[in-house]
Amino acid sequence: MNAKAEEPLVPLDSGHSKLPIEGDEQGYSASPYLTVPQAAAYLRVSKNYLDKLRVSGTGPSFVRLGRRKVLYRKADLDQWINERIFGSTSQYGH
């Protein structure tokens, strides 16, 4: 048996995550665009939660192609997350 060492999905020391994306032979997507399920996995939230954020206008920026196709840029996801970094619960409103 070949035991393959498992890499962390999100290296804490880097500015960019390396998240395995389905359909990519190397396990990482080279495209800066993610589908809704891929973006949800990247953010570690459910697809339904990401859909609700998109409808309410409180989620990350997205790209709409046609009536149904929605994509997210990795840079927009990273920016959205970085805007939500707090040092204390008193720093954000409820």
UniProtKB/TrEMBL annotation:
Residues 1-21 are annotated as: Disordered. Residues 33-84 form the Helix-turn-helix domain. It comes from the Bacteria. It holds the Pfam family HTH_17. InterPro entries: DNA-bd_dom_put_sf (IPR009061), HTH_17 (IPR041657), SinI_DNA-bd (IPR010093). This is Helix-turn-helix transcriptional regulator.
